[in-house]
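Lay summary. Proteins are chains of building blocks that fold into shapes, and those shapes determine what they do. In this project we predict the shape from the chain. Here is one chain we studied, written as its sequence of building blocks.
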Amino acid sequence: MLLQLDGNGPLHRQVYASLRDAILAGDLRTGARLPSTRELAAEMGLSRTTVQLAFEQLLAEGYVEGRVGSGTYVAPGLEEARDSRPPADATDASRLSSSGRRILEVARPLLSNRASGRPRPRWDFRHGLPSLADFPRRSWRRHLLRRARDFSLDACDYGAAQGSAELRDAIAGYLTRSRGVKCTAEEIVIVTGSQQGLDLTARLLVDEGDAVLMEEPGYEGARSAFTFAGARLLPVPVDEEGMRLDAEQMNARGVRLAYATPSHQYPLGWVMSLPRRLALLQWAERAGTYVVEDDYDGEYRLGGRPLAPLRALDRGGRVLYLGTFSKVMFPALRLGYLVVPPALVQPFARAKSLADGGTPMLEQQALADFIRSGSFERHLRRARARIRERRAVLIESVAKHLGDRVEVVGADAGAHVLLRLRGWSTARGHELARRAAGEGVGVYPATPYYLKPPRQAELVLGYGSLNHAQIRLGIKRLAGLMTRA
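And here is the predicted shape, written in a compact code that computers can read:
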């Protein structure tokens, strides 16, 4: 008989698990004789001792029985256990708590819109991906190796829950000189990417039934975090000037916080105007609530210098400023930061400690050096120039191949645009994306970002990770698909 070993744990446990599963699945029925330990060991290329240990475990747990002079057989009485076993997926779900089942539900749209284990399309317009080929890996490697070489015993211990003091100081300096955010290292909490920052914010500031103002459309990762915390999401429409609060929303009862992407609205790409920013801050001060400012790619302001974040205008301590290095360095780094009002520093640090015990120290120290040496800002300047060039190629290609069949939205900042397909329904847009994927072109419907899906088809196209030739050919192939649809 041929057993499938899963590679998890010692070999004798893998043999035991494979035989046990075959018995429970009914592949080995009651009374069936198992091969001898010598035969099975020879067939699988294992030592006889390994197989004997597996048989002993099966005997001890009652799955098999030994008959003197005859061999080892599947034990009787297992049919009822087989018949009563639900499918594997049902068993797994039934063992989850109510919170666990809610995680499955609220995280589904987030996971469905992220990269899976499948190979990436050849022309992948996935948004949120920086160009890894543009990243100065040699410089980063130099900082990383130097820190690894000088790694002290103290650095091997658990670090501060709030994050490396060196990194927090470097980030504070960068934010002050480059983003207009005047803060100290003591106001910063290092997190494992922006999603953990959102999760901690939801856990600490939102109770079951509280209302959260959300941009409509808006980032599905934030929506999932607040939904899991039990929030009622109040959608706020977005136009060319950003989040548009009306009197009813401003006066809604039970609002604990608002979530916004002022520097580059996600996914529409518009930039919040100064009057809207001031109005949002005034509302937060008057209501005694907080604003979560997600500045996920504010460094990619393409029409001039990056705009000063909402946090730079905050005088009342109402803004939690969230930043990440995933979009400007590389996603696998898994480092982000929160700038929080002083009264919230300790709650966030303790919540961070409870969540994961702290962020890996070596990467934090190397990143601190990368920022302080000027390498980070030099990389940003080069990356911004390349993004500007790619945007021009994208806009030119869309105009050439798609013309007035689409409307381009939000092309002045960030590394993605939104295409509105004139005369196309949402369902038809989804079918186009499915067919495009089959031909190696990755384009992504905007539906997951809406609480109420739009009637008109919209596609979000990121271009930061593509070169000029890939952009031109990808748009040309997309245009061909639209023509044939």
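What the prediction tells us: The CA atoms of residues 206 and 229 lie 6 Å apart.
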